[in-house]
Amino acid sequence: MHFAVVGIVLLALTLAGCVSTQPPQHTDLKAPHPTYVAMYGPQPNEKFPLPATDISTVDPQFLRREVAYDTPERPGTIVVDTANRHLYLVRENGRALRYGIGVGADGMKWAGRAQVGRKAEWPRWTPTAAMIKRDPERNRPWANGMPAGPNNPLGPRALYLFQDGRDTLYRIHGTTEPDTIGEAVSSGCIRMLNPDILDLYSRVPVGAPVIVLSDTQTANADRGPTT
Q1: Which residue, 100, 149, 213, 214, shows the most beta carbons closer than 10 Å to its own?
Q2: How many domains does the chain have?
Q3: Residue 223: CB atoms within 10 Å
Q4: Containing H/E element for 56?
Q5: Cis peptide before 44 (omega within 30 of 0)
Q6: pTM of the full predicted structure?
Q7: Is residue 168 part of a domain?
Q8: Which residue is catalytic, options 18, 26, 33, 189?
């Protein structure tokens, strides 16, 4: 199956910043299950130790779990279901790991086939010219880049997506805003809870295939999954 590249020109102008463009919306949620509280606990051994992730405002469907997943894609493939705010890492025997994600706001999304062209631990963040123009007070101070650290919007890890050997400017990364998971508020990248990007990063090598579905395609409709 082939997926067309959508909005690549706009993407190049807006994507690399990957910060929120509007506040998330939430409904009342039950207290997280203790299993998830432990899963999203502190990460004291990181270069910049991470506190426990606040998942109290995250819908449970966006917390990491293994699911049944019927797909022709080979194990090790990442499938990003933009419409349903899920990322799947295909595994053996019709299974996948499913993670919740935050996605780009309208007009700031990309879809297509790519591969992980580069991986970075505690990446540096640099806002694009378009982001500085849109929100100069917030972004201009970092025009030359924000060093890695607990306040960097890319979080502790980033996967850089390439297509035909060229950087798409599309990233899968962590976040300083866990309450935006399940929302469409970013400048274009895919954001994950920090423990989830740490987990995904440890499982995928450079060269891993990535499929980013458009809003009119869903992993549920096209290729499963059933849980």
Answers
A1: 100
A2: 1
A3: 21
A4: none
A5: no
A6: 0.83
A7: yes
A8: 189
Based on the residue annotation, tell me whether 189 is a catalytic residue of this protein.
Answer: yes
Within a domain: 194 = yes
Q: Is 5 strand, coil or helix? A: coil
Q: Which of 18, 33, 86, 173 is catalytic?
A: 173
Q: What is the CATH number of the domain that holds 70?
A: 2.40.440.10
- Is residue 26 annotated as a catalytic residue, yes or no? no
Output the tens digit of pLDDT for each of the chain's 227 residues. Answer: 444 443 433 344 344 456 555 555 555 567 888 999 999 999 999 999 999 999 999 999 999 999 999 999 999 999 999 999 999 999 999 999 999 999 987 656 788 999 999 999 999 988 878 788 888 998 899 998 999 999 999 999 999 999 999 999 899 999 999 999 999 886 678 999 999 999 999 999 999 999 999 877 877 544 444 44
The answer to whether residue 2 sits within a structural domain is no
Supply the range of the domain harboring residue 111: 8-22+32-207
Residues in CB range of 120: below 8 A, 6 or more apart? 157, 158, 160
Phi, psi of 217 (to 5 degrees): -120, 145
3-state secondary structure 88-142: EEECCCCEEEEEECEEECCCCCCCEEEEEEEEEECCCECCCHHHHHHCHHHHHHH
